[in-house]
Specification:
With 183 residues, the protein is mostly helical. It has seven helices and no strands.
Length: 183
C-alpha cells in the first residue's frame, strides 16, 4: 500500500529543489549580467585629462630635474628638463590606463568625470596638490617625532646606546623580539 504522506513529501521536496535550482540559476545569471563593463582607454584618458595628469607630470619633472641638478651638477640642466618630455608622458599615461581599467568600471569612470567636472570636483583637483604636500610634511614630522621617541625609549631600556647602536654585550638571544613601548 502506498503512503500518500510520503508521496506528498517527495512532491513537495522535488518542488522545493526545482524552485531553489531556478532561483540559483536566475541569481547566477544576474551575477553574470552584473559584471561591470570595464572603461575604454578613451574614457580613462579623458579622466586623466580632467585630472591634469600631464601638468602634474610636468611639475614632477621640474622637481626631479632640480634635485638631479644638485646631485649631479656636471650634467647640463637642459638634459634634466627634457628627461620627461611629451613622449615620456604619453608612455607613462599609456601604462597607467590598464591600472584604471582593472580598478574601475566604465560607470565608475563616468561618475568620476561628472564629479571632477563639477565645481567641487574642480576645487578638489586644484586644492589636492597643496593638501597632499602639507599632509606629507606633517607625516614626515610626525614620523621623526615617533622615531625619536622610540629611540629614546630603547636607550632608556638599554637596548641601544647613545649612538643608536646595539650594545656589544649582552647580546640579545637569537629570535628575541622587541616589545612595543609600555608592553
Amino acid at each position: 500500500m502506498r503512503n500518500l504522506a510520503d508521496e506528498d513529501f517527495k512532491d513537495m521536496r522535488n518542488g522545493i529543489t526545482t524552485g531553489l535550482a531556478l532561483l540559483l540559476a536566475v541569481g547566477a545569471g544576474g551575477v553574470m549580467a552584473a559584471t561591470p563593463k570595464p572603461p575604454s582607454e578613451a574614457q580613462v584618458r579623458q579622466l586623466m585629462k580632467v585630472f591634469g595628469v600631464d601638468r602634474m607630470l610636468g611639475q614632477m619633472n621640474s622637481q626631479m630635474a632640480a634635485m638631479m641638478r644638485q646631485q649631479v651638477p656636471c650634467v647640463p640642466a637642459s638634459y634634466w628638463q627634457g628627461f620627461i618630455d611629451a613622449d615620456g608622458v604619453r608612455e607613462l599615461t599609456g601604462r597607467m590606463v590598464p591600472i584604471y581599467q582593472r580598478h574601475f568600471s566604465a560607470a565608475d569612470i563616468e561618475g568620476l568625470l561628472k564629479f571632477y567636472r563639477s565645481p567641487l570636483g574642480k576645487k578638489v583637483i586644484t586644492a589636492m596638490p597643496a593638501t597632499m604636500a602639507e599632509g606629507m610634511q606633517l607625516g614626515q614630522s610626525w614620523g621623526r617625532e615617533r622615531a625619536q621617541a622610540m629611540l629614546a625609549q630603547l636607550q632608556k631600556e638599554g637596548r641601544i646606546d647613545a649612538q643608536g647602536r646595539c650594545p656589544a654585550a649582552p647580546a640579545a638571544a637569537p629570535g628575541t623580539q622587541l616589545s612595543a613601548p609600555g608592553h
